[in-house]
Amino acid sequence: MKLAVEIENLSFVYPDGNRALDGVSFLVPKGLKTVILGPNGAGKSTLLLHLNGLHTPSHGKVKIFGKVIGEENMREIRKNVGLVFQDPDDQLFAPTIFDDVAFGPQNLELEKNAILRRVEEALKAVDMWELRERPPHHLSLGQKKRAAIAGVLAMEPAIVVLDEPMAYLDPRGQEEITAILNKLQEEGKTVIVSTHDLDWALEWADYVVVLNSGRVVAEGDKGLLTNRRLLEQNGLKAPILVKLFEDFEEKLGIPMSLEEAKKKLKRLVF
Fold it and tell me: Of 234, 237, 127, whose CA–CA distance to 175 is shortest?
């Protein structure tokens, strides 16, 4: 199994003394759709900022494809790891979407044709090519998030990290972002997402890491999301499907798998 990310005993203390991460260790296998969960203040955003060197560990190591992040390889790391912020307004700054997406490739000192190719491919990947001359402040929130993703894709990273990409989006916007993330994974990229939306995580994730108070409290496959007690002990609400599943078991008195519960639910609804 090839590893995309290795985090070893990672701790981080802000200048005001707040210990945001406290001995975090976990692995992210290459190509898996990975979700980072946790209540507000768990350390999710701080953790993600370490994955492309925006934060430097107070203690511990972060490895990308086996290489420890450091000053000597920061340029290479940031080519490999693209980070999309929770608020796209923190990321979009240029007069037009085209200019914004072109900014990263221009800093790589690529030839003009290579830059144009990357920008076009990235904007088409998120269905934003027709809006390429639009100023960012004229876009909807969903469009801004897609434009921010395009800016990362233009760097052609192997790992795409997104902080709360579903936040404040309507159902259609969530479907559009999910389709983009699925396509990235199909193309062989490792996608890492932090989210509070456990219903979405249950449907999408391959691998799950649960943080609380700056520490990893659980990690494993999406089966963790069916552990209602674990989730609630760590400030998270179990997915609606899990609650329905437990109700089926209680009322029918017959243990069943999550997939069986899904089938029963579909028959009831449709």
Answer: 127
The residue extents of the domains of the chain are: 3-232, 239-270
Q: If DSSP codes are grouped into helix, strand and coil, which group holds residue 184?
A: helix
Q: Cα separation of 147 and 121, whole Å?
A: 12
Q: Are the beta carbons of 201 and 220 closer than 8 angstroms?
A: no
Strand partners, 264: none
Reported as a single tens digit per residue, the pLDDT across 180-239 is 999 999 999 999 999 999 999 999 999 999 999 999 999 999 889 988 889 999 999 888
Q: Say which CATH topology domain 3-232 has.
A: Rossmann fold (3.40.50)
Q: Give the up-direction half-sphere exposure of residue 175: CA atoms within 13 A in the CB hemisphere.
A: 3
**How long is the chain?**
270
For 186, list phi and psi in degrees, rounded to 5.
-65, -30
